[in-house]
């Protein structure tokens, strides 16, 4: 396809306009929370106020006496299996005899008005017998998974640096709360319109709980207001369906913001101890690491998160000797699961902090220490897996270092830390520069049967060629609907393309996570289009469709196989594809007030092949913003198992005033194993931005700062000349 054709067709390589763009800008786009059906009623969930307790009794009588209340359900009313889960079916649909975290669902109410339903839920009387909650993961003996990685036997070196690091619990903080509409069907089944990331796995978990065959549980994707991993697990899906089937009426459930914090998984907080050994000139000899991840009350996707943290635990560096142990444990804290970066984020913060310490100990610059140890094509990960596609990390670092630095501080108060609120005039502001490197696996790993299905139909509509693309891939804001149409236009040469609503009437597309949809669903659409084009028999599209009539083909696309990590050594080809991103952060820090202003973020990322330049830029900006949030402000506060800040008043996320200008360089080194040579791009910026910002704050303050997010008191409240962070990690 020529560049002229791309421009005409808005195909692969062009910044094709998103079909939902204007609707979202004008407020006309329908999100799942906007769903409405005549005769529908409202569902509400009663949740446990305690992180750990026995349930001694539940009295629903007071709720049923309230006018407008239609039904109240408990675990006794679950029509089928009482447990579900992504990897292990350990989570009850409704609490049975105990609660294991604050916010666990205990009962359901349906009423003719949402306020009535909320009042009724509050009227339910639950007798709890409190018990001691396990909230410190370092004291938990209940393992989700332990994954070691062992390589080599030399653990002595001329230069040794050690450190202990902590990553707080981050929330995905999507703007659209959990919501959905369940509609009972005449065949005894249910139709669920839902904001989710994985339609078929939702269905596979729901059907047994509802006591229905899979073909009677039909899901259609509704407008999704962001996801970032939190919609991989079930939230209100089973609850809405139970109420709808019980009442034989449509039931809508919409969480408020506070309930949303209780109703989905979060990023695993982590405690990590690292030891790096190197030669005097900075060549890595060994890495030791202990990584502890708090999985909370239920399994969710913690086993996969542990696997990622272990396999990527030393970063994109040549390390001949490795002893890594990654462990996930159960506690009575809120469940943790998928979030952008998925285990690799936590490890990246620690190993990048270590690389800065090693640079200091060896008398090298932060860039030089990384260049000397950078992987490249032909290198092996610590799991022994060969990097068999381009990985030009050293060049990326040199490109980043060569980018011009921003000018000095402006007189404009808005450019200073705290300047917008008139807290400073720059009296105690210092500037710092820091670097971060991240490596992320793309697609699902460790032998998971990872595939996507696409159905493509070409036909004449009004005498003109028209294409319909149908997949179950969840559009969660990343631009996947746009990309599917671009691929169809490119492969078939037909401009008029419609992407049908994602639902379970077509084969699974897997989850919109792991930066995988462009790869696997893009591959499936491409394959289905190629099959349709083959049936054109070399004729132009219009002529072929006039001669043969509508042509429809369905194809599954699978990437190359992966394999489980060895349970004792961690060795194995566990990943499909790897992606690299490097960041440089420039920050201004008011060292008296403890306030930080990120002045600039610069990034270099290799994406294999650019499919949509504007969408790609948005992914890098968005991932960098979430990394900034983790570095400086975002943290769910948990005390004794209780969530203290379930609101956007108290859980802080970056705004337009916090996000700096970004300079980017995008490299295209195609991966020969991937469709179009693409490389998943959504997650890597989230990894490297956090340690880069933390490093820049350290450079400005001289403090060790071994925990993110960095709080103002970590910077401001210290004795002159004494580093409060030294106890968390020292140069050997």
UniProtKB/TrEMBL annotation:
Domain of life where this protein originates: Bacteria
Matching InterPro entries: Ald_Oxase/Xan_DH_a/b, Ald_Oxase/Xan_DH_a/b_sf, Ald_Oxase/xanthine_DH-like, AldOxase/xan_DH_MoCoBD1, AldOxase/xan_DH_MoCoBD2, AldOxase/xan_DH_Mopterin-bd_sf
Segments forming domain Aldehyde oxidase/xanthine dehydrogenase a/b hammerhead: 26-132
SUPFAM superfamilies noted in UniProt: CO dehydrogenase molybdoprotein N-domain-like, Molybdenum cofactor-binding domain
Segments of this protein annotated with the region Disordered: 407-427
PANTHER family tied to this protein: XANTHINE DEHYDROGENASE, XANTHINE DEHYDROGENASE SUBUNIT D-RELATED
Protein known as: Molybdopterin cofactor-binding domain-containing protein
Organism: Nonomuraea marmarensis
């Amino acid at each position: 396809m020529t560049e002229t054709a791309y421009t005409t067709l808005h195909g692969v390589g062009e910044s094709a306009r998103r079909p939902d763009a204007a609707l979202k800008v004008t407020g006309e786009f329908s999100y799942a929370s906007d769903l409405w059906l005549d005769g529908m009623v409202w569902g509400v969930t009663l949740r446990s106020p305690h992180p750990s307790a026995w349930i001694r009794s539940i009295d629903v009588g007071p709720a049923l006496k309230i006018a407008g209340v239609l039904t109240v359900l408990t675990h006794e009313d679950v029509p089928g299996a009482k447990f579900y889960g992504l990897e292990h079916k350990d989570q009850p649909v409704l609490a049975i005899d105990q609660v294991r975290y604050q916010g666990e669902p205990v009962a359901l109410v349906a009423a003719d008005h949402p306020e009535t339903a909320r009042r009724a839920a509050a009227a339910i009387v639950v007798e709890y017998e409190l018990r001691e909650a396990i909230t410190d993961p370092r004291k938990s003996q209940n393992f989700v998974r332990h994954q070691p990685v062992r390589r080599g036997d030399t653990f002595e070196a001329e230069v040794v640096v050690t450190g202990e690091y902590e990553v707080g619990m981050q929330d995905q903080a999507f703007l659209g709360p959990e919501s959905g509409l369940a509609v009972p069907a005449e065949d005894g089944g249910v139709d669920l319109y839902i904001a989710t990331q994985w339609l078929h796995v939702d269905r596979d978990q729901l059907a047994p709980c509802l006591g229905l065959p899979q073909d009677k549980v039909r899901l259609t994707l509704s407008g999704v207001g962001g996801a970032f991993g939190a919609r991989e697990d079930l939230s209100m899906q089973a609850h809405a369906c139970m109420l709808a089937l019980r009442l034989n009426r449509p039931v809508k459930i919409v969480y408020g913001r506070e309930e949303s914090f209780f109703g989905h998984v979060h990023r695993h907080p982590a405690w990590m101890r690292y030891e790096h050994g190197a030669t005097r000139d900075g060549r890595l000899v060994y890495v030791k690491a202990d990584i502890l991840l708090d999985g909370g009350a239920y399994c969710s996707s913690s086993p996969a998160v542990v696997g990622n943290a272990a396999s990527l635990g030393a970063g994109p560096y040549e390390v001949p000797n490795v002893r890594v142990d990654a462990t996930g444990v159960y506690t009575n804290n809120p469940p943790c699961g998928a979030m952008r970066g998925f285990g690799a984020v936590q490890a990246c913060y620690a190993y990048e902090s270590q690389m800065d310490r090693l640079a200091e100990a060896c008398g090298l610059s932060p860039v030089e220490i990384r260049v000397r140890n950078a992987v490249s094509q032909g290198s092996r990960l610590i799991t022994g897996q060969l990097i068999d596609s381009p990985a030009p990390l050293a060049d990326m670092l040199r490109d980043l270092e060569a980018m011009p630095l921003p000018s000095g501080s402006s007189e404009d108060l808005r450019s200073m830390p705290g300047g917008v609120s008139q807290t400073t005039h720059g009296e105690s502001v210092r500037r710092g520069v820091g670097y971060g490197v991240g490596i992320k696996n793309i697609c699902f790993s460790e032998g998971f049967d990872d595939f996507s299905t696409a159905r493509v139909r070409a036909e004449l509509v009004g005498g003109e060629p028209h294409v319909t693309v149908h997949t179950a891939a969840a559009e969660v804001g990343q631009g996947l609907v746009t990309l599917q149409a671009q691929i169809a236009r490119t492969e078939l040469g037909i401009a008029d393309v419609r992407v049908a609503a994602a639902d379970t009437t077509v084969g699974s597309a897997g989850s919109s996570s792991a930066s995988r949809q462009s790869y696997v669903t893009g591959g499936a659409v491409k394959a289905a289009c190629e099959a349709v084009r083959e049936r054109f028999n070399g004729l132009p599209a219009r002529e072929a469709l006039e001669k043969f009539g509508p042509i429809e083909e369905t194809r599954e696309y699978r990437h190359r196989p992966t394999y489980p990590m060895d349970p004792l050594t961690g060795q194995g080809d566990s990943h499909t594809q790897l992606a690299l991103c490097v960041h440089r952060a420039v920050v201004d820090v008011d060292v008296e007030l403890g306030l930080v202003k990120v002045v600039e973020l610069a990034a270099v990322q290799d994406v294999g092949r650019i499919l949509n330049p504007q969408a790609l830029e948005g992914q890098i900006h968005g991932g960098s913003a979430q990394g900034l949030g983790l570095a400086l402000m975002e943290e769910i506060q948990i005390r004794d198992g209780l969530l203290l800040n379930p609101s956007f008043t108290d859980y802080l996320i970056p705004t337009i005033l916090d996000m700096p200008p970004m300079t980017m360089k995008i490299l295209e080194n195609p991966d020969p194993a991937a469709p179009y040579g693409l490389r998943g791009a959504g997650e890597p910026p989230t990894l490297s931005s956090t340690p880069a910002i933390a490093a820049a704050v350290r450079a400005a303050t001289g403090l060790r700062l071994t925990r993110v997010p960095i709080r103002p008191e970590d910077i401001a409240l210290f004795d002159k000349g004494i580093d409060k962070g030294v106890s968390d990690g020292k140069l050997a």
